[in-house]
């Protein structure tokens, strides 16, 4: 979710406020009008935007703000808190796992919104947490849907229960019995989708809920549909009582309207967001972190979690040790690049840094990193370990081998030298190094 223009608009509003010192009621009112327009342009539901502004204005007009020494900061703080509240509050909404297994989750939603993909993503996510999930094919109308679930289930390493075109409620019942027999503690039902909300679909979901004990109904909605996604969520919630929302395709949603309004309109929290087509592209939805991303304050916590999730801790410790011993070489650099790629590439990492939302991802040339990798791959083991032996003749060979130029090889070698110098300094005088970094 990029929220690019919303972030930009809000940072413009706050910059003007900061320039004013003391704020008058008129200043706050003018700023709030701009925030309201920005929200509407982000495709936020009209009533949600109106109520939001009313709440923020009331708080901002309060004495603590008007009389504070930094009124603009106070207003930003109120907007931050209110955005967090709007999306569900400080705590991320989690799935409650029952002490008596299995916990049964029913995924529902319109066709094409990402239900089957997210059944597998969730399965993989639970698997990583040490659970033993089971996916269940309850979409009996499209034979391709069963095949698709089997394919993604296999990719995720999660077993899939199928019974062909048997009635969905019977499949669900048998699947739960199977889960009990085989020790699966989480059952994820992938139900049928339709192109539009219709009664037959709601009746079918209702029959499944009557036949088995569903612990959570999770609605899968496509963030890119904006307000339509919110309307769909409202209809599903009224018909089958949803417990939580999985907001998918947030990677393709630049406006963020669904993320901002769906909780306020339906009363149901977003529990997860889908951030890409790959099965690892699933994140717990943290309203507070999302609010600070919108306000350009970055989302360093998610960044750290991603790194922790992927970094092999032993390897990270080894790299750190090698850095401290001045042994960091081109092989280590290659490892670091691979890690970065696994974390979703440079553009996605930058977007989570404070101020990173101001950088257009299209301006980040991921090809540079592909070139660096190619250059290192074209080096011999001796060259990788000791780049100082790379003379002009070797440079020409490496450039030719990697399909790059001698200038690019030179540039990489210079960067590497600089990194080594920095590491030496860090070792010699960690405190001064810290001061230098902070000053950067
Ligand atoms: P279903 O009909 O609801 O089961 O939808 P599918 O799971 O078949 O997904 C429809 C399409 O959306 C597929 O091409 C998926 O790869 C794609 N998709 C699903 N989730 C995401 C996501 O979070 N991001 C992106 N970019 N694509 C997604």
TrEMBL record:
Binding site for GTP: 109-116, 190-194, 248-251
Domain AAA+ ATPase per the UniProt entry, residue ranges: 101-301
UniProt xrefs under InterPro entries: AAA+_ATPase, P-loop_NTPase, Signal_recog_part_SRP54_M_sf, Signal_recog_particl_SRP54_hlx, Signal_recog_particle_SRP54_M, SRP, SRP54, SRP54_GTPase_dom
Main location: cytoplasm
Coiled coil, from the record: 300-327
Keywords: Coiled coil, Cytoplasm, GTP-binding, Hydrolase, Nucleotide-binding, Ribonucleoprotein, RNA-binding, Signal recognition particle
Top-rank lineage group of the source organism: Bacteria
SUPFAM superfamilies per UniProt: P-loop containing nucleoside triphosphate hydrolases, Signal peptide-binding domain
Subunit structure: Part of the signal recognition particle protein translocation system, which is composed of SRP and FtsY.
Family membership noted in the UniProt record: Belongs to the GTP-binding SRP family. SRP54 subfamily.
Protein name: Signal recognition particle protein
Encoding gene (name): ffh
